[in-house]
Predict the structure.
Amino acid sequence: MSDTAPPQAARILIVEDLASQAELARIFLAGLGYQVRIAATAGAALDEVESWQPDGLLLDIELPDFNGLELLNKLHAQGCDAVVVVVTASASMELAKQAIRAGAEDFVVKPYNKDRLSLTLRNALERRALERQTQVMESQLNDTQTRLQQAEARLGRAGFASFVGASEKMRAVYEIIQGVAPSKASVFITGESGTGKELAAEALHKSSPRAAKKFIALNCGAIPRDLLESEVFGHVKGAFTGATSDRVGAAKLADGGTLFLDEIGEMPLEMQVKLLRFVQTGTFSPVGASRTEKVDVRFVCATNRDPLLEVQAGRFREDLYYRLYVVPLELPPLRERGDDILRIARHFLGQFSKEEHKRFRGFSPEAERLLMEYAWPGNVRQLQNVVRNVIVLHDSDLVTPAMIPPPVSRAGAGPRLAAPPRVPEPVRPPAPAQSPESAESVESALEIAPSVQVVPAAPEAVIAAPSYDAPPPERLPPTPVAPWSMPAEEIEIIPLAEMERRLVMAAIARTGNDIPRAAALLEINPSTVYRKVNAWRQEGLIPQ
Amino acid sequence: MNSLQMQCDGADMVLPPPFAELAAELSPEDYRHVLGLLRADVSRLMNDIAQAARADDATAFRRAAHGLAGAAGTVGAEDLAKASREAMAPADTSAWLVGATARLRALAADLLDDIAQAEVGTGPDGAHAPR
């Protein structure tokens, strides 16, 4: 650019009521390559600024309708960021100061020649361009810093969404969630029990454009097969015995949001056909209804089985598998997450200490070694239960090995436990409520995940998947059932304390050893569950 | 206004210096066009000044005087520009406005003569007419 060349053929509005002065400036500026328009009044100038959006104004102070300084204020008020050079016949310094204070970039006194005008205007435009460039760069810098902070939060100690952990494997999980969240693609989450599959589903939902809509979680394994269709699609009054009113299903509730189908491998084949149609078309019919409804739902599924093996075994439809298995997301077991074990343990220690009003500040090095050496077959949920157990039963500054319950406390005695079988097979108990024996058959309900996952037979409308530090998702109200309407003579009368023990252990077993969820079902505090179970164990009423 | 003898295109022509500068920066068509507009502006402004003085409207007087100062400065009419700037000072009495108007009118008449002269040329050969 030469000394007098205009910056990128800028648009200049000359605001001048004297035709000779306006024309002279126009000739000068047009000859220099500027695009030029003239406004003879302040009102006309406001209109031109609005419609033409000039880069600069050459503004005479004295205008017929109102003062040029007033015009400057009005332009500023309406967000005009054009550079303004004030032109006047009065060389008053006070006027110049007023003009600069009002937002003018520079000031030129008549008479001026072409070079003077050109230099003043060009300098003013370049200064403004530099200011804008600086603003853009500062904005980009701020944006970059924000993204860096977000990335650090995502990948660093803070974890991601409700996850805690910064191991390489979890970073990969966070990246996949971030990458796939904006799309509508179905996500198929796999991982052992307690690895946080529902947390991943919720993180997907919250990171997606659907975050403002509902996240509906449905545990396919927790719902009796004859009620599953109603839970998913809803029903109309009279559709079946007990359907005393219309009921909206999960599909409708999740319209615009995300439908999380946990334990999808537990879904009966006949229901899989109906789900396939729903996934393909987005339409469904409530049970007993003749109408169809269309919704916009994103599907997220989860299972702790190998879905392809399920397909090969004929337990999962291949066409449904390919419809849902668009983006696979595998959650690593806790034993493969290295220092995440301690990060998560410290996270729970802080959270539960606060809840229970305890003094704990951390783990002793020996206690940390125990935690690191244990295999955690129940994954994060098991770690959560162990930390909760410690906090409920003790109070100190540091968690010591003596406070840690077995079998974790025995971790240092021998070689690290091997990983549990990859795919636990679910077993359905025969009765709606579990017997004490079946509940007690769960290996040490507080410390270790069962080798066999017990799936409740009693109806439980929506049971969320394991969640170790996130608020519960939207839950459907339970389907009305009436087990309490049994005739009195058919109810076994036993001591109340034993009934309490049976009920508590059944709740623990039914929730897959998720103490907070068991406590929620029982509508008591988790601490109460820990205390009771610990007391029963000490009394020999339940196995160690 | 003092005149300046200068060489232009091999011919002598006499132009007041500011006029010459203006002529040097503009094409002949633009120069003539601007002079025409300038003449019209000065005439209108003088009318505005006179009307404002008669109406004892100091604000209108000051605004017109400001315009006249700028117009006069364009072609180096320093006396008129200076008088116009002085006339922009706050005036208390209509007598002051009338007096200022009389002075401006005389100076403006000189300028209008100069403009007319510049537009048509000073000599019979039109040597200092716009190129």
Q: What stands out?
A: The interface with chain B takes residues 17-21, 23-24, 27-28, 60-62, 64, 88-90, 110-111, 113-114 of chain A (CB under 8 Å). Confidence is low (pLDDT under 50) at residues 1-5, 414-484 of chain A.
